[in-house]
Each structure stands twice: as C-alpha cells, then as structure tokens.
Design a protein that fits this description.
about 200 residues, alpha/beta, five-stranded mixed barrel, 5 helices, about 30% helix
Length: about 200
C-alpha cells in the first residue's frame, strides 16, 4: 500500500493513523496491539517508504490505569516522532462500557492537564514543521476569500478540511483566483496553525 501511495501522483501523501497511545500496557488495556518500539518502527518505515508524507495521529490521555510513567512515555514519543498533525482528547467514561468499570480511573483535572501538556508539545513540533514550509511553493486548492483578513485562502495537500490549518495568500493587483482551482503559493510566514503566502503567477 505504501508503495502505491508513493508512486501514484493522484494519491495525497497524507495518512491519519489514530494511535491512541504508545504505552504497551495502556494499549493492551484498550485491547489494542503494539508498543512504543513497534510504533516507532512503523512510523520510520512509512516515512522512509513515502518521502514527504504528512502524518496525523489522534491520542487519548487519562485512560483508566494510565500512570505517570505511561504518560511520560507518551510525551517522549511525541517529542521524538514529531507528527506533522496531532489531536488529543481526554478519556471520557461511557456508560455500560468495560473501561468505565476499570479500576484506576484518572481524575478529570489530571486528564485535562495531561491533554494540555500533549497539545503544548505538539504546538512546538507543528511550529517547526510550519516554519520549514517558508520559501516553498506548495499547490493550494483555492476555497474562498476572507474579507476580514483581506486574503484568499485554501488548503495544501498537508491540510485536511475542517481539521488542519489553512493557507492564506495575497494576489497581485487585478488577479482573482477561482474557488476550486489549484494555484501555487509561495509561503512567506506562519500565523498560529496557518501558513501565509503570495500567489505565484
């Protein structure tokens, strides 16, 4: 599958792999396989096979029984792997589920604190990735014009709709791109989760 993704131009090089966690103990409690070592190997294999791939994952903190050591292992993994895109949510007990009856329930305050820490770590990695885009000219799918920002905006292949950031760009005088068309934008700056740039004509 990875070879097909690499070789087919029509396939976007973006993979969403919801890992949930990396601690083997927590994953086993979730009835999932793997651990930090096997997941590092998987991600290294993906990046080696598909150069330039953008990886997104979703993580869960505060699953019943998650210890300080489990959480520390997760944070170290995030720092090392540096996902281009990452979301994190706190475990929420669902009525009549096995997890809701497990011992070692984590307090709501601690769950939210752990989630905040994960997102702070990801913000650092995401900022590094975004700044690496400055000077590049990705292909952007034009979406619309933001009259408040005074710029057009769209998405590159690294931006899933309604999840990731956008690419905002200015146009030369008299140039009006067509929504739904593809254009080249030279990236000049970063603002929060978004890229800023100039339309290339």
């Amino acid at each position: 599958l990875l070879t097909v993704i690499r070789e087919q131009e029509k396939i976007v090089k973006y993979l969403d792999i919801p890992l949930q966690h990396v601690s083997g103990r927590v994953l086993k409690a979730m009835h999932r396989t793997g651990d930090a070592a096997s997941l590092r190997e998987l991600i290294a294999h993906i990046r080696e096979t598909v150069p330039g791939v953008v990886l997104r994952t979703t993580l869960m903190v505060g699953f019943p029984g998650e210890t300080k050591e489990d959480f520390r292992e997760l944070c170290e993994f995030i720092k090392e792997v540096k996902f281009e895109r990452l979301g994190c949510f706190a475990y929420s007990a669902e009525e009549d589920t096995p997890a809701a009856r497990m011992p070692g329930q984590v307090s709501e305050k601690l769950k939210q604190r752990r989630r905040d820490i994960v997102m702070q770590e990801q913000a650092l990695a995401a900022d590094v990735y975004a700044r690496e885009q400055i000077g590049k000219t990705p292909e952007v799918l034009v979406e619309s014009y933001d009259r408040y920002a005074g710029r057009w905006f769209g998405r590159s292949a690294a931006d899933a709709p309604d999840i990731d950031g956008k690419v905002f760009f200015t146009c030369p005088q008299g140039v009006k791109p067509v929504p739904g068309s593809f254009v080249r934008v030279r990236i000049t700056d970063v603002m929060d989760w978004d890229l800023m740039g100039e339309l290339q004509v």
